[in-house]
Amino acid sequence: MKFKLFYGLVLGAFLFACTSTEKESESDTPEEVPVKVIGKVTSYATDSTTMVGYLAMDVNDSSKRPGILVVHEWWGHNEYSRERAEMLADLGYVALAVDMYGDGKQAAHPDEAGEFAGMVMGNFDEAKARFDAALETLKNHPNVDNEKIGAIGYCFGGSVVLSMANAGYDLDAVGAFHAGLRLPVMPDSGAVKGKVLIANGGSDPMITEQHVQDFKTVMDAAGVDYKYISYDGVVHAFTNKDADSLAAKFENLRGALAYDAKADSASWAEMKVLFAEAFK
């Protein structure tokens, strides 16, 4: 009888210990916190101009992480550039959609867009001052690892980020989508600090084969670590779902702009690889 009682007490203690350990183990497993991307209007300034940007991040993540600048198309800082900033935030980055025109100015017509873009790229010192202001705003954010900074740009914005990389900015990676290649600054040997991705449409009427050849020649001579992708049969603005409606609205853009879902998805995937490698 005493043996049976002793055996029962030992077995009960063992089972209790196992059950307790399992419960403790389960309770020690941290719950997965869902991603919650929130964007907010963020103003910053140069000595002469106030810019209206948009900063997006996962507010449930308190860690420091890479920061990425997003430079808009020639239309100006609009919902499209903000959407791309939010997409980057969903990937785990802190993203700032910048304002290169100042005061949140947007173009309503292609002629106006060309004028705005020309004013910025025609005065590269002012362009750098505006880029600097955005860059410092991003680097000073408490959730940004300021040793890991990248930039992407679309159309005019692609030309901007390529030019800034060529000018020697300390950017770990730069992604340019349907970007112009005739830039105000081309790189000297060793000037470009990080990796560069250029994703353009193979049938973009704004980019000639000579532009591509000249661009590659200079990049090769400067020893730039770059990847140039040309999507067959794809025209300008292929990442923007509004491209078709804009082409229909403005006669001088018909046939030049068109959204391409396949090229959009493929180029975004290439960008994700670019940043994953750059921010190891």
Automatic annotation (TrEMBL):
Residues 53-278 form the Dienelactone hydrolase domain. Keywords: Hydrolase, Signal. GO terms for molecular function: hydrolase activity. The keyword Zinc does not apply. Residues 1-22 form the signal peptide. This is Dienelactone hydrolase.
